[in-house]
Amino acid sequence: MTHKTRLLFIGTLFCFLFTLSVVHADEWGTIIIPPDKPIKIGLGAMLTGDYASMGIDIKNGAEMAVQEKGTILGHRVILQAEDDGCAGPSSVAIAEKLCNDPLVVGLVGYMCSGGSKPASDIHNKYKVVMISPSSTALELTARGIPIFFRTCWNDKIQARRAAGFALSRNWKNVAVLHDKSDYGQSLAEDFAKHIRNKGGKILALEGITRGDKDFSPVLTKIKPLRPQLIYFGGMAAEGALIARQMKRVGIKAHFMSDDGCYTKKDFIQAGGKATTGCYVTYAKEPDPAWVKRFEARYGPRQTFSPQAYDAANILMMAVEKVAKRQADGSLVIGKKALRDAVSKTEYEGITGKIAFDPNGDRTGSVVVIYEVVQEKGERFFKPMQF
Amino acid sequence: MGHLFDPIIIIDQIINGLTIGGIYALIALGYTLVYGILFMINFAHGEIYMFGSFGGYAALTYFVNTGFAEKHVVISVIAAFVVAMIISSALGALLERIAYRPLRHAPRLAPLISAIGASIFLQNVMMLIIKARMQVYPDVIPESFIEIGKISISYFQIFIILSSVLLMVGLYLFIQKSKIGKAMRAVAENKEAAALMGIDVNRIILITFVIGSALAAAAGVMVGMYYTQINHMMGFIPGIKAFTAAVLGGIGNVAGAMLGGYFLGIVEALGVLVMPAEYKDVIAFSLLVLVLVFRPTGILGEVVSERI
């Protein structure tokens, strides 16, 4: 081989290797974690404000998973929690910030459906995977966004279960309230649809404003309609006040709400005795051994910490699966590969078996009806047989 | 729709309206007193109300935790009011001294901006103190209500309506009959002339802030006890609603602020009967716009509201 042909040979070899590496590069691009840099898991939840105990609970769940994991392929994993205020504008700002952070591999969140919806468009632009532990609104998985997943349920199931329970108790005259959010309103309307379809009657369908504290005018308006049940689609701060104030204006109906009200601190304790006998819907109780571990560390669990724990673990497992360790110690993670790994999850989590359907919804989720009961001087959520 | 005009429901709604209206009126008095004397809107007034509410919360929680509240309910509640009023009055006086007095002769936009700055500052101070989480007033008074025929009134509502009326009557008498009240009216009419007559204008202004703040604190404790949930942003919406009430009645006019507060509360409650409930705030702010367009001096207006 002459000098010239050898050069040519090496040249073609380089070209060949280069094209090979292009073929193997991810079509959505790659995340490169340099050596000695940590892997960041983002988190968006309300950490200050009226629903902060729910958001802090989510943060604690994810933090526990991240700290238990410690490292992935020699890189430390850290959680970067941001306060999304449970609303669109701040979630979008956080999405822009985290998606442009070169060390963020994915995100647990956002907490509220109203935040997840606009933020998922930003995440889709940058193809950064997100797993929400708590955004249950119908439309989130109906918009063909490939990077959105959730470890909670779809409100389709929640509304159907709640309506089925109401009808099984023969509560056919129902007044429905909601907080005008993406979450509360779509849930309440879906609930009303199920009741109507099964021969029940919707006496009123009214919106209230988040952050308001006085609901006596709307409850006084509903009172003469004599509902058997008041259903509320929304969060615990308002739910607890409605449960309290409906007794005050003299409504003798039952009260039922959703997972937004499944929190001991903001619903049972904040609502006082008026919440005894109220019904809420939520998932099956998580693994009791995990709950014990969690509560030893953070105090009483509120709502979505188990779902956040599972979401963080799924994300970290997917990273571990697709990350390629380079000779210099850096990690290369294909964004499409990461998304595909998450979507193919088969995982026995603390909230049960987790797998996703093509839309990003969790398959086989179960919604349970809970009643607030008082036993031995303690008030808590007790699962109902239904 | 027939049931909506059932007189029972209308009476129930009027009672709801009087309850929240009394609270609006108490806060509105603070706006109106300050405007009457200084011709400025104290936009930090909602935060003074919020601090009062937290003062009452701290006192009541302390009494409940030490077991004192169980034995002496009435004393605990009165003490909570006193603590709240002291905290808010001190804050009001401090605000006047630090944020407004140095700007007394500045262009009139300056104190307004200073007030908005103070408002944001105070919200954030409370946010740092309470870690930005909602706080819940302890249940001290057992919730019970009386039913007269088909109308049900809770003792709380009676308590709020009566005590707000009592406070306002007290204030009215104070302004009309007492020596300080007379001085306040004199300062409102003409500061220079009042000073020439030997009235310490700065002292009267300080007293005005203290009185307005104490009334807001009372409203804050009532709201805490009745609606139970308080947070660091709680002063914002009631602050604007009370401002609306003050403008409605004619800002600067004490009787007007009371009337405006009750009027706004009742209109909100009755409006819900004919409109979807989500328009409750829309009703209040549409009223504000309408009054500003068609009768800027308010219902009883006497001070021309061109000042701001």
What does this structure look like?
The complex is a heterodimer of chains A (386) and B (308). Chain A has 386 residues and is an alpha/beta fold. Chain A folds into 2 domains: 30-152 and 304-354, Response regulator (Rossmann fold); 156-283 and 367-383, 3-Layer(aba) Sandwich (Rossmann fold), CATH 3.40.50.2300. Chain A has helices at 3-24, 52-69, 88-99, 113-126, 155-168, 182-197, 216-222, 236-248, 264-271, 288-298, 305-322, 335-343; strands at 30-33, 39-45, 71-72, 75-83, 104-109, 129-132, 148-150, 173-178, 201-207, 229-233, 254-257, 279-283, 324-325, 331-334, 347-349, 352-354, 367-375, 378-383. In chain A, the strands form 4 sheets. Chain A has a 7-stranded mixed sheet, sandwiched between helices. A 6-stranded mixed sheet of chain A has the order 3-4-2-5-6-7, with helices on both faces. A 3-stranded antiparallel sheet of chain A has the order 1-14-13. In chain A, helix 9 (264-271) links the parallel strand 11 (254-257) and strand 12. Mean pLDDT of chain A is 92; it is low at 19-23. Chain B has a single domain, classed as ABC transporter involved in vitamin B12 uptake, BtuC (Orthogonal Bundle). In chain B, strand 2 (145-148) and strand 3 form a beta hairpin. At the A-B interface, helix 7, helix 8 and helix 9 of A face helix 1 and helix 11 of B.
Q: Give the total of domains of chain A.
A: 2
- Proportion of β residues of chain A? 15-25%
Main β-sheet of chain B, in a few words? 2 strands, antiparallel
Mean of residue pLDDT values of chain B: 90
What overall geometry of chain A do the principal axes of the alpha carbons give? Answer: elongated
Terminal residue distance of chain A: 82 Å
Strand order of the largest sheet of chain B: 1-4
Radius of gyration of chain A: 24 Å
Q: Write down how many β-strands of chain B occur, each being a DSSP E stretch of 2 or more residues.
A: 4
Percent in strands of chain B: under 5%
Mean pLDDT of chain A: 92
Task: Give the topology string of chain B: H per helix, E per strand.
Answer: HHHHHEEEHHHHEHHH
- Class from helix and strand fractions of chain A: alpha/beta
Tally of DSSP helical segments of chain B: 12
Per CATH, the architecture of chain B is Orthogonal Bundle
Order of helices and strands of chain A: HEEHEEHEHEEHEHEHEHEHEHHEEHEEEE
Unreliable spans of chain A? 19-23
Q: Percent range for helical residues of chain A? A: 40-55%
